Amino acid sequence: MGLRPTRRGWALGLAGVTLVLLGVGLGAVDLVRLGTLVVLLAVGAAVVVGLLDPGRGRHRLAVARDARPNPVHAGEQARVDVRITASDPAARVRLAGLRFAEQAATELSGGRPLRARVSRSPQRVTVSYTVEAARRGRWQLGPLVVTRSDPFGVARSSATLGDHAEVVVWPTVVPLPTASDVLVGEPDRVALGARTPSTDDASLRDYREGDDLRRVHWRSSARRGALMVRSDERAGMRPVSVLLDLPARLAALEWTISLAASMAIAMLEGGHPVRLLGGRDGAGTEFLHARSGPTARADLLDSTVDLEAPRSPEEAESQLLAAAHLLETTEAGGEIVLAVLGPLGAGARAALAHVADNAQGWAVVRADGASPAHEREAQHTVNALRRAGWRACAVAPGEDVVACWLRLLGSAR
C-alpha cells in the first residue's frame, strides 16, 4: 500500500534522466529542457496523486458496509453494499476517480475475485456485490482497497478504508416433516387439545420449563415464593434437548451440525422448548421457546456457529459425557432427547443408558463406512442404545437429512 510509480512512470522518469544526461554530454540545451520537462511531469503526477491519497489527511472518506441477510445459511447468497461517503468538498475531490476493490474471506468469495457493480454520485460511491456462504462460521469482509492514478498513468496510490465487517453463517437447515404421531406424547396431546382439560384447577404443581405462563396460579405462587401452575396444564409442550457428538472430519462435522440444527428447528417450530448440548463450550444450555419471542430461532442457530471439531477422541468423549451429565442433573423427566452420535466407547454408552431412565431418547449413529471395524462399532452402539431404551438407527454422514429423520422415526415401530 502507498504511493508508487507505475511501469509507465518508471519508463518516463528513466527516459527523462537519459535525455538530460545525453543533452549535457552533447551540449544540447533543448535535450536537457525536454528531459527536465519529462522528469518534472513524472514527479508532479506523483505529488498530485500523493496529495489526493484518500487514506491520509483530515478529509478522510467514511465507509459503511451492509450485508443482507446476515446471518445467512450455508449454501445461500448474501448481497453486500459498501457505501463510501464524502462529507465535505475536499473529501469529494478525493472520492472522484477512485477505483475500488473489496476483500473477502475465501469461505465467502470461493477464492475468486469479487465482481461488483459501482454506482457513483458527487458525494457517494456504492459498491455492490454478492457472496456465497460456503461454510458455517464467522467470516470477514473488508477492508476496502482504493486505488488512484494520475491521468497519464505515471503514479498510483493504494490505501485501505474502513474496518472489517463480519458475516455470520448458520448451518444448512432442512425442513423436516412433522413427527407429532411418533414424538408427541400424552402430555403434549393435552396441551394441543387432544384431550379435554381437567376441570379441577385447584391441583397445583411447580412450574417447569415450557409451561404456558397463562396457567400460572399467581396467588399460590406469591404465597409459596415459587411459580405454581394448574395441573390440567401439567406438561405444556415436552422440552427437547438435542445432543451433539461432534466428529473430527470436517465434512462429517458440518453434516452432523446441519442434521442437529434441522431437528432442533423442527421441534422449536412445533412448539417445544429446545436446547442444544455438546461441543467444547457446551453449545446452548438454556431452553429456547417460540413463545419467548421472534429471536428464538436465531438464538438457537447462533449457538451452532462456533462449534468446532474435537482435537482428539478423548476430548470428544469428554464433551459427550459432560452433556450427558447435564441431562442427568437437570431433572430431564419426560424430556425428549434427540442425539446425533458417532460410535461410542463403553463409558459414553453407560452414561447415555442412564439418560434413558428419565427421558425419551432418540439417536442417529454415524457409520461412515471407513472400515468394517467402524461399521461394527456403529452398529454395536445402536444395539446398546436400543437395549437401554433408546430408539436408534445407523446413518451415513452426507446422506439426505430428511431420509435420516424418517428412518429414526421409523425405528420406533
Put the structure in a nutshell:
This protein is of the alpha/beta class.
Specify the structural class. alpha/beta
> Approximately how much helix is present in the residues?
25-40%
- Under the CATH scheme, which architecture of the largest domain would be assigned? 3-Layer(aba) Sandwich
Give the overall average pLDDT: 83
Features:
single chain, 413 residues, alpha/beta, Immunoglobulin-like, Rossmann fold, 3 domains, 5-stranded parallel sheet, 17 strands, 24% strand, transmembrane helix, DUF58, membrane, DUF58 domain-containing protein, transmembrane
What is the fold's blueprint, element by element?
Layout: E1 2-5, H1 7-26, H2 29-51, E2 62-68, E3 72-73, E4 77-85, H3 89-95, E5 99-104, H4 106-109, E6 117-120, E7 124-132, E8 137-149, E9 155-161, E10 165-170, H5 180-183, H6 186-192, E11 204-206, H7 218-224, E12 228-230, E13 240-244, H8 250-269, E14 274-277, H9 296-305, H10 313-329, E15 336-341, H11 346-355, E16 360-366, H12 372-387, E17 391-395, H13 401-410
Parallel strand pairs: 3-10, 13-14, 13-15, 15-16, 16-17
Antiparallel strand pairs: 1-9, 2-4, 4-7, 5-8, 6-7, 8-9, 8-10, 11-12
